[in-house]
User: Which sequence fits this backbone?
């Protein structure tokens, strides 16, 4: 490969170790991968990672502009988190959720202090999907209602209910068995469902659509409305002015529990601790995972309002899991949140968005005919690629990839950049603490790769 990023002190380029080869062979023989046709895979072996970089089985170094699955918010192998996990492992690896544990108590305090409003009780889960499942269960029991509204162009997780609430094509194969899931069109001006010309119009029309949908479904049947505060994998499309506030008002008016899914957008990614802060909205339930401990040990959870917590004051909450508040995961969360605060990582994410990524992407939109739109905030950005700017025909069809997109991903990798690609989009989602210099190096590679994309566009 022709890496434009210099190798560090980690594994040497060209040394395809026997261990990496064996890992690959065993993987192909025994490991069944997520969301994939197993026989068509040729996965990359990763042998080491540090900060914003990873090394493959041949010793090649890559700048990770994906944060893996947009979760390594403080980068790989942060020393404070690694030593907190090691210290916790030495002290107490596991304990049932019914006991009190200091790591769990402290993680709950640190999260509750950062969530908006009075979301002061934390129910811990293993990840994002089960956080959303539990949030919906709480909302149903709290309201005594059944239906749940969710947006097209969204992702809420791979378990049965969470995938049925999902608005993107990962739902299609499992679109059965979760009664009461009803979807609405979210605002998305670039591909508007409402024939809007401005963000204000899009916001107003999307709210009118939602209001109608609520009245046709019957407000007294609707337990919850779940949405990503800023949708992630579905395209990092920013809610237009007034939209989230309007959704909050509709939910309050009809007694519907508002669930903000901050699994991807939370913990610094958008330049604030939580994306809802950009809009001054307080949900009734807020779900999180990924960035809470940078994904070092699986962890998710639900932050709960006092009203919903009170529903389960004298009445049993009928749900739980063996690893709720697992000590290794919550010790990692404590260390991650403290490191983010000490090193001002959230502020750094905001700085990168405003001063480095935002301006560079605006330049791409001007200089590359393949770029239909760029949008985002913090270290949470999407570049929407089109074959034709006038018709906005995407470079890959909705729900699919294309030879052109595959070529762009390969071009990034051959230049030492790990991108996050979905359908016709490349997302710019590096760790929140990526240095300005590394961010600029990655953007320079993307600029080169967009020259190739321009060749596919009219
Ligand atoms: N919600 C959102 C917004 C996500 O992006 C994801 C995962 O990407 C999930 C939920 C599911 O989280 P998990 O994969 O930890 O179950």
Assistant:
């Amino acid at each position: 490969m022709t890496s434009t990023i210099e190798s560090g002190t980690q594994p040497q380029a060209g040394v395809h170790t026997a261990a990496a080869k064996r890992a690959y062979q065993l993987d192909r023989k025994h490991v069944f991968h997520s969301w994939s046709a197993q026989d068509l895979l040729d996965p990359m072996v990763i042998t080491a990672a540090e900060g914003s970089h990873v090394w493959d089985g041949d010793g090649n170094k890559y700048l990770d502009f994906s944060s893996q699955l947009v979760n390594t918010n403080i980068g790989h192998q942060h020393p404070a988190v690694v030593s907190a996990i090691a210290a916790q492992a030495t002290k107490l690896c596991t304990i049932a959720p019914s006991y009190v544990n200091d790591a769990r108590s402290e993680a709950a305090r640190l999260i509750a202090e950062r969530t908006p409003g009075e979301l002061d009780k934390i129910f811990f889960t293993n990840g994002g999907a089960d956080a959303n499942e539990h949030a919906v269960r709480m909302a149903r029991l709290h309201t005594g209602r059944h239906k749940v509204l969710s947006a097209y162009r969204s992702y809420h997780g791979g378990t049965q209910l969470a995938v049925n609430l999902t608005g993107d094509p990962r739902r299609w194969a499992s679109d059965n068995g979760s009664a009461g899931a009803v979807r609405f069109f979210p605002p998305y001006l670039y591909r508007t469902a409402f024939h809007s010309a401005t963000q204000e119009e899009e916001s107003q029309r999307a709210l009118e659509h939602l209001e109608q949908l609520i009245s046709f479904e019957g407000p007294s049947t609707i337990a919850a409305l779940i949405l990503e505060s800023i949708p992630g994998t579905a395209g990092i499309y920013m809610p237009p002015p007034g939209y989230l506030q309007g959704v909050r008002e509709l939910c309050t008016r009809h007694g519907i529990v508002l669930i903000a899914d901050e699994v991807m957008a939370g913990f610094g990614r958008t330049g604030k601790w939580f994306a809802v802060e950009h809009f001054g909205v307080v949900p009734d339930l807020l779900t999180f995972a990924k960035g809470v401990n940078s994904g070092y040990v699986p962890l998710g959870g639900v932050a709960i309002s006092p009203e919903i917590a009170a529903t389960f004051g004298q009445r049993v909450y009928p749900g739980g899991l063996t690893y709720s508040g697992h000590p290794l995961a919550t010790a990692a969360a404590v260390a991650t949140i403290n490191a983010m605060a000490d090193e001002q990582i959230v502020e750094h994410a905001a700085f990168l968005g405003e001063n480095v990524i935002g301006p560079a992407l605006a330049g791409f939109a001007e200089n590359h005919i393949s770029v239909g739109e760029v949008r985002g905030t913090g270290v949470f950005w999407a570049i929407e690629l089109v074959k034709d700017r006038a018709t906005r025909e995407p470079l890959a069809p909705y729900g699919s990839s294309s030879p052109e997109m595959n070529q762009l991903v390969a071009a990034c990798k051959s230049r030492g950049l790990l991108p996050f690609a979905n359908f016709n989009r490349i997302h710019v989602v590096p760790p929140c603490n990526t240095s300005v210099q590394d961010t600029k190096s990655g953007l320079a590679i993307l600029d080169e790769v967009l020259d190739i994309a321009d060749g596919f566009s009219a």
